[in-house]
Amino acid sequence: MSNYLNIIQLVSGIAAIVLIFAGLFLSIRKLNKEDSSEKIPMSTVKLSTILIVLGLLLYAVTKTCTNYANRDQEYDLIVIYVASLIDVIKFFGFIALIPILLNYVKRRATKKVEEDTEKN
Fold first, then answer.
1. How many Cα atoms occupy the beta-carbon half-sphere of 73 within 13 Å?
2. Which of 71, 66, 63 is nearest to 92 (CA)?
3. How far apart are alpha carbons 19 and 66 in whole angstroms?
4. Can you list the residues of the chain whose pLDDT is less than 50?
5. Cα–Cα distance between 117 and 85 in angstroms, integer?
6. Which residues are CB-neighbours of 106 under 8 A, at least 6 positions away?
7. How crowded is the C-beta side of 74, counted as CA atoms within 13 Å?
């Protein structure tokens, strides 16, 4: 059983890293520093947020494998997963908000540029 947990932990950890960074790079790539009037498309924000959330769920699987191997009492696997998920959300849940914050900052910068253009 321990070998299977190690394999599941390794695969879910790598997949979590790939999904989280893919979601972050998808949003960051849409930021165009030269043209500040373009906003990040909402479909890109939604897709990158979904990718990051899926990555966090997979990271919870990685934490579940670690907690399952180190358990002291007999808990069900779902209880260990929920505890791991809460722990992941508590410490890394803010990462899911990064695409939304990037879009918000881009909108504020766009409004500021438009106001400055109208004043001149």
1. 3
2. 63
3. 20
4. none
5. 47
6. 31, 36, 39, 40
7. 0
- Take residue 9 and report the two structure tokens written for it: 């932990």
44, two tokens: 């890109």
Asked whether the beta carbons of 27 and 98 are under 8 A apart, the reply is: yes
Long-range contacts of 64-73 (CB under 8 A, 24+ apart): 65/5, 65/6, 65/8, 65/9, 65/12, 66/9, 68/5, 69/2, 69/5
Per-residue model confidence as pLDDT tens digits over 91-115:
999 999 999 998 888 766 666 666 6
Contacts of 49 (CB under 8 A, 6+ apart): 23, 96, 99, 100
Predicted confidence at residue 109, as pLDDT, reads 64
Report residue 111 as tokens: 């409004």
Please give the Cα distance from 91 to 83 (Å, whole number).
13
Could you tell me how far CA 1 lies from the centroid of its own chain?
30
DSSP single-letter state for residue 39: P
Confidence (pLDDT) at 35: 62
CA atoms of 85 and 43, how far apart (whole Å): 26
Is residue 31 helix, strand or coil? coil
